[in-house]
Amino acid sequence: MISYIISNFKSNPFLKTLYLQIFLFFLLIQIRSCFSSSPTPFIFPLKTQILRSPSKLQFQHNVSLIVSLTVGTPPQNISMVLDTGSEFSWLHCNQTTRDNQPDPTIFNPNQSTSYKPIPCFSPTCVNKTQDFPIPPSCDSDNLCHATLSYADASSSDGNLASDTFHLGSSGNISGLVFGCMDSIFSSNADEESKTTGLMGMNRGSLSFVSQMGFPKFSYCISGSDLSGLLLLGDSNVTWLTPLNYTPLVQISRPLPYFDRVAYTVQLQGIKVSGKLLPIPKSVLVPDHTGAGQTMVDSGTQFTFLLGPVYNILRREFLNQTAGVLRVLEDPNFVFQGAMDLCYRVPLGKTRLPNLPSVSLVFTGAEMVVSGDRVLYRVPGEIRGNDSVWCMSFGNSDLLGVEAYVIGHHHQQNVWMEFDLEKSRIGLAQVRCDLARQRFGVGL
Predict the structure, then answer these.
(1) Which of 10, 165, 413, 443 is least crowded, fewest Cβ atoms below 10 Å from its Cβ?
(2) Active-site annotation, residues
(3) Does the predicted model carry a pTM greater than 0.70?
(4) Beta 358-362 vs 267-272: how paired, if at all?
């Protein structure tokens, strides 16, 4: 899924074909805000004897990472897509209740006594929305109105508001700003209707993590049992493999194709089975327009590379798998509009052969994608007695995306730490299912 909701080049052609749930765990956390002039402590009491631990949430994943929590007074159950590629969090709002029954896919502001709409001339509306590509406007009631748009023509309209978000039984965060969207158009309405909204987690001033003041957060996605772990705050995990850090790339001046609040890192090269590909350094850095940045995004399933780099990777992977895999000879089939290197694998084959790994080399860190994750089985595609598997790297040029995007499929079994204080991302190879057990989540 590509959910760059508030960026000019954000794309989302295959949003949410399967949804799985994230369940909240109740822990004590005391985090001081690093983003405001008067730091505010946040305390979440817990039912166990673990002290001073970050908030821990477990999730399951496929195309989207889903967080389940409650919002409002009294609390209403909602679910949100966890998206490090978006700044603004929003909920699908409706002022009526279907058959007088709670609907977890819709938030009803009329049923919340803590809900507050935000006026269009308020400091929040005027000053904190400057990174929105479409500036907010005033509606007929002088409320702050926002329009969010997708590159695949999906969009949502609604008002900025604030309400109380509940992380656990008594961890209440009052006054958190979000979009209460009453008009939503989606290219995949059936799947879109299964969640209430989106949790924006990038570095923008109105992102969920920025508003809560967490100095860092981490997540780990299992590649074996579709589970995961999200930590809000400093983990201080002594048993975790030492992290390798890559600095965030920051450009202060506005550029038309550079998202300044994204988690941008510097891609320095790509290896296939340890062989460094002959990629010119010039195509891996943003140009004078900002096109060509490399973003780490939990809201995107796969990884997308600019055309010249994708073609080099495609040729090398094709060469190294010659005689091992049978290429799908169908020029009319391009998986999700961007992946055109596909193979036929006999249906009776329970395991893929040993395949080349692909390594993404960043400044100071490396992300290794094992061979079994380089290919992805296309759901529902059968050719005779064969299933169809495609390389899980796509050509971003085919999507109209002027960027490199590192999706969560290639972040499996990698501890991902987003350090906002030191402007860096930490990576470490780890068994995420075992990490979840070590934290006592889901047991």
Answers:
(1) 443
(2) 83, 297
(3) yes
(4) antiparallel
